[in-house]
Design a protein that fits this description.
Bound molecules: adenosine-5'-triphosphate, magnesium ion
CATH architecture of the largest domain: 2-Layer Sandwich
CATH topology of the largest domain: BirA Bifunctional Protein, domain 2
CATH superfamily of the largest domain: Bira Bifunctional Protein, Domain 2
Number of strands: 31
Number of domains: 3
Number of helices: 14
Structural class: alpha+beta
Length: about 600
C-alpha cells in the first residue's frame, strides 16, 4: 500500500478533552474520528489495527473450540423483560420503538439473545458443551463516555457464552477460557494481571477480570507483594489483622460528646484507636421498580465501606447517599447513629445500672454489620441521641443481626493467601470471564434433555473482551512522548519505507524495490511515497508508530539506507539488498 493513496489524516493538535496518550495518539495519528460523544469512526489505519486484534481473538477462540456467530444488534425488548433486566439495566440501556410500536433495545450485552438461540437449537445433552461467541457492536449509553476508545457508547466487544449440562463442565470451560484469554493478551504484547472480580448482585460463583496494568486505568487492583494474589478492589479480601491496638477499658455508659461526630475527632476525644469506634455509613439502597430503603452499614472506624460489596450484600441495584433530612425522617440522629441504645431499666436503675438493647428495636431501618464486628468488645458507638456516644459496648448483645464482608481492603493490609502485604495498582479492564449458572437459562426457559431424560436449564458461563478498548490499552502501555509504538502483532503496518525525497527517481526506485522485497518476505509494509518534506514524513512515522521504518535518503549515494526501530528510535544502517531482511528480523 502507498501512503499517498491512503486516508491517513494525521493532526498536529490533540482534541481538547483528550488527556490520555491513547486518546491523543489515536486521534492525532488518524486512526479514529469522533462523530458524536462516545461514538467513533475507524479510519483505514484504525480499521487495520481493529482487524488484527479481532483476528488474534478469533484464532485463539476457534483453536479452543468456540464457534463464531453474529447476533442482531437490535434486540427485541421482550427478551429483556423475560430476563428481568429491562427495568434493572437503568439508563445505559437504549430503548426504542419501531414504526409499528414494537419495543427494542440496542444490545449492551447479549445474554438474552444467545440464550434464546441456544434454547431454540440445542435440545439434548449430546449437543453439549457449546461455546458460541461474536465480535460485534455494543451500545451502552454511558453516563461519562470518555478517554476515546476506552469508554465509548458504541464499542466493539467479543462476547461469548458457553452452555453445559452441569456445573463441573462449566468450570472446566471457565478455566479453558482463562488460559485462552492469557494467550490472546500475551500475543498483543500486553502486561496484564488476572484478578478476582466482583460477581455482581446476581451472585455467580466465580468471576475474573483481565487487567492491563496502566496508571491511567480506571480500576483499582489489590495485589500482594508475597504471592500472586490479585483482585479488583470491589472484590478484594484480606486476612484479619494481628496488630490489634490496645483496648480502651471502660464500663458501659453514655457519654456527653457535644458536636463530636467524625471518627477522627472521636478517636482524639476518647484517646482511642479508631479500631474501637463503630462507624456507621448510612445509604439509600435502590431496588427494582424504584423501591428504596435506608440501610445502616456498621464497620470499624479504621475501615472504609466498599460500596460494590455493600450493594451486592443487600441485593440493591445502586447505593446513593442519604441526606440528613432523610435520616431525621427515619428517626435517626445524624452523626450519632449506633447499633445499640442505652435504656434505663427502672428496676436496675435502683442499683444504678444500665442495660442496653439492639438499636433495631427502636427504628424501622435495616442494618448490616461488617464481619470484623462479630463479637467486638470495648467499642464506642453513637447513642442514637444528639451529642451522646456510648462507651464500653460489647456487640455480643446483638441478636439476629446480619454480618457480611463490607470493607475496602487498605494498602498494607495482610494477604489471606500468604500473609504478605497488600498494595494498590491501577488497571484497564480488557476482559471479564464469569461463571453464570442458570441465571438466564431459567427465566428464558432454555432447557435441554439430560442423559436421564429430564429437562434441565443450561448451566452457563459468559466471557467478554473489550475489542475496541484494546486499541487504547495497547497504546497506554506502548507509547513515548512522540506517539504510539505498536507491537508488530497489532500494528497497522509492520514497517514503513520512507522515501526521503519522492522527486528523486533513484530514491523512489530503491524505495519501491525494498517495499517489494518486504512484501515478498511476508512483512506487512507501507510505502511512504508522498511528495512531502522528509521531516514531516518522519514525524508521521513517530506519531503513528509503525514498529520499523526503512529510510531511503541521502545515504543512498553510498549504497546505504537507514533502518529505525520505533521503540527507542534505534538506528542501524543496511545495504539496499539486505535492508528487507534486517527489517523483517526487527519486526519479528
Ligand atoms: P467497565 O467496568 O469498564 O464499565 P463492564 O464491567 O461494564 O466494564 P463488561 O460488561 O464485563 O464490562 O463487558 C466486557 C468488556 O467490554 C469489558 O471487560 C471491557 O473491556 C469492555 N467494555 C465495557 N464497557 C465498555 C465501554 N463503554 N467502551 C469500551 N469497552 C467497554
Ligand atoms: Mg460498564
Amino acid at each position: 500500500m502507498r501512503f499517498s493513496k491512503l486516508l491517513i489524516p494525521t493532526l498536529k493538535e490533540a482534541p481538547k478533552d483528550a488527556v490520555l496518550p491513547s486518546h491523543i495518539y489515536l486521534v492525532r495519528g488518524g486512526f479514529i474520528y469522533q462523530v458524536a460523544s462516545g461514538i467513533y469512526d475507524f479510519l483505514p489505519l484504525g480499521k487495520r489495527v481493529l482487524d488484527k486484534v479481532r483476528a488474534i481473538v478469533k484464532e485463539e477462540l476457534d483453536a479452543a473450540g468456540c464457534q463464531e456467530v453474529q447476533l442482531g444488534f437490535v434486540t427485541p425488548a421482550e427478551l429483556w423483560k423475560k430476563s428481568g433486566r429491562y427495568e434493572k439495566y437503568g439508563a445505559e440501556l437504549l430503548r426504542f420503538n419501531d414504526r409499528k410500536g414494537n419495543e427494542f433495545v440496542l444490545g449492551p450485552t447479549h445474554e438474552e439473545m444467545m440464550v434464546e438461540l441456544a434454547g431454540r437449537f440445542i435440545n439434548s445433552y449430546k449437543q453439549l458443551p457449546a461455546n458460541l461467541y461474536q465480535i460485534n457492536l455494543k451500545f451502552r449509553d454511558e453516563a461519562r463516555p470518555r478517554f476515546g476508545l476506552m469508554r465509548g457508547r458504541e464499542f466493539i466487544m467479543k462476547d461469548g457464552y458457553s452452555f453445559h449440562a452441569d456445573h463441573e463442565d462449566m468450570v472446566r470451560e471457565f478455566n479453558l477460557m482463562e488460559q485462552t484469554y492469557r494467550k490472546i493478551f500475551s500475543r498483543m504484547g500486553l502486561d496484564f494481571r488476572v484478578v478476582e472480580a466482583d460477581s455482581g448482585a446476581i451472585g455467580g460463583e466465580g468471576s475474573k477480570e483481565f487487567m492491563v496494568l496502566a496508571d491511567s486505568g480506571e480500576d483499582t487492583i489489590v495485589v500482594c507483594d508475597g504471592c500472586d494474589y490479585a483482585a479488583n478492589i470491589e472484590a478484594a479480601k484480606r486476612a484479619e489483622t494481628d496488630e490489634i491496638p490496645e483496648a480502651p477499658e471502660a464500663d458501659l455508659m453514655k457519654f456527653h460528646t457535644p458536636g463530636v461526630t467524625s471518627i477522627e475527632d472521636l478517636a482524639k476525644y476518647f484517646h482511642v484507636d479508631p479500631y474501637y469506634i463503630v462507624k456507621c455509613v448510612a445509604k439509600r439502597a435502590v431496588y427494582d421498580e424504584g423501591k428504596n430503603e435506608i440501610i445502616l452499614f456498621f464497620l470499624r472506624g479504621s475501615d472504609e465501606l466498599q460500596e460494590t460489596k455493600a450493594a451486592n450484600s443487600v441485593g440493591a441495584n445502586e447505593l446513593v447517599d442519604v441526606t440528613e433530612e432523610e435520616l431525621e425522617t427515619a428517626d435517626l440522629v445524624p452523626g450519632f447513629i449506633g447499633p445499640v441504645s442505652i435504656r434505663r431499666n427502672p428496676l436496675a436503675d435502683e442499683q444504678n445500672r444500665q442495660i442496653y438493647t439492639s438499636r433495631k428495636a427502636s427504628f424501622e431501618v435495616k442494618t448490616l454489620f461488617d464481619n470484623s464486628l462479630k463479637g467486638a468488645s470495648h467499642m464506642i458507638c453513637g447513642a442514637n441521641e444528639k451529642d451522646y456516644h456510648i462507651v464500653g459496648v460489647n456487640l455480643n448483645v446483638l441478636e439476629d443481626e446480619k454480618f457480611d464482608d463490607l470493607v475496602q481492603v487498605k494498602i498494607g493490609d495482610k494477604c489471606r493467601e500468604c500473609g504478605g502485604k497488600l498494595a494498590y495498582t491501577k488497571g484497564i479492564e480488557v476482559g471479564h470471564i464469569f461463571q453464570l449458572g442458570t441465571r438466564y437459562s431459567e427465566p428464558l426457559d432454555a432447557n435441554f434433555l439430560d442423559r436421564d431424560g429430564k429437562s434441565k436449564p443450561f448451566v452457563m458461563g459468559t466471557y467478554g473482551i473489550g475489542v475496541s478498548r484494546l486499541l487504547a490499552a495497547v497504546i497506554e502501555q506502548h507509547h513515548d512522548e512522540k506517539g504510539s509504538i505498536w507491537p508488530s502483532s497489532v500494528a497497522p503496518f509492520e514497517a514503513v519505507v520512507v522515501v526521503g525525497n519522492a522527486k528523486d527517481e533513484e530514491q523512489l526506485r530503491v524505495g519501491e524495490k525494498i517495499y517489494g522485497d518486504l512484501k515478498k518476505m511476508g512483512v506487512d509494509a507501507l510505502l511512504d511515497d508522498r511528495p512531502e518534506r522528509f521531516g514531516f514524513k518522519m514525524k508521521d512515522f513517530e506519531l503513528i508508530g509503525f514498529p520499523c521504518a526503512v529510510v531511503v535518503g541521502k545515504k543512498l549515494s553510498e549504497g546505504k539506507v537507514e533502518i529505525i526501530k520505533r521503540d527507542g528510535l534505534v538506528r542501524v544502517e543496511a545495504g539496499v539488498d539486505d535492508a528487507a531482511e534486517k527489517t523483517a528480523e526487527i519486526v519479528g
